[in-house]
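Task: complex structure prediction.
Instruction: return structure tokens for all chains below.
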Amino acid sequence: MSYGEKISLKSRRELDQMREVGQHTGEILLALRERVQPGITTGELNDFAGKELKRRGLNSPFLNYSPGGLPPYPAVLCASVNDEIVHGIPGSRELKEGDIISLDFGVESQGFHGDSAVTIPVGPISEKARKLLETTRDSLYQGVEKMVPGKRLSDIGAAVQIRAEGDGYSVVRQFVGHGIGRQMHEPPQVPNYGSPGRGQRLQHGMVLAVEPMVNVGSEKVRILDDGWTAVTVDGQLSAHFEHTIAITDAGPEVLTRVEGSH
Ligand code: CO
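Output:
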């Protein structure tokens, strides 16, 4: 894992801009979440998100995103259902009662980025699924608690891993969190596992997207033929929660959190 790259430090003015784009991200994600119900398609959720971006004069950093020769991502939202871990492409799939769906959404505005994800129930869900969602959200916040000046980068992932594995789940290794700012993906990588006390010291002005992906069964990942959709190899459930968080002298500031959100 590469811990050594240069992490950009945001000025007060840049943090204000990150806060603004973060709030748009959180508000739209919350509005999406309110639309989730049995019968809606993931494509309809994506259409709503696209309209909301347009209405607010914002851009999508996801649309046509094409890292390392992958086919350009064809939507503004990632919608990953049940055993899909991340990067599910919205389409004609209808949600049904008992499903869980991860909504992963990003915004670009005036050169800055917000990135957030939440996994939510579709109607009543099993106790097994409910517990997975609760633990995954909590593992994110265990990581957030470590985001204070003077701690080290690997303290975040170590805290996430201890919380998730403590409940008998596995954490996905193949995808990691990331620095965020003028780019959606900046250094450093932020894995959801590892030993504490390693890597760079955290400083006021760093902004990171922390995004644990937690599986009921094996951590192993398979990519579907669309080139994007990541699913669990064993077909068991996976959950994903993400926030964009600023490290400040006053403590962690969750830039993508809005009233009523995760
Ligand atoms: Co992200």
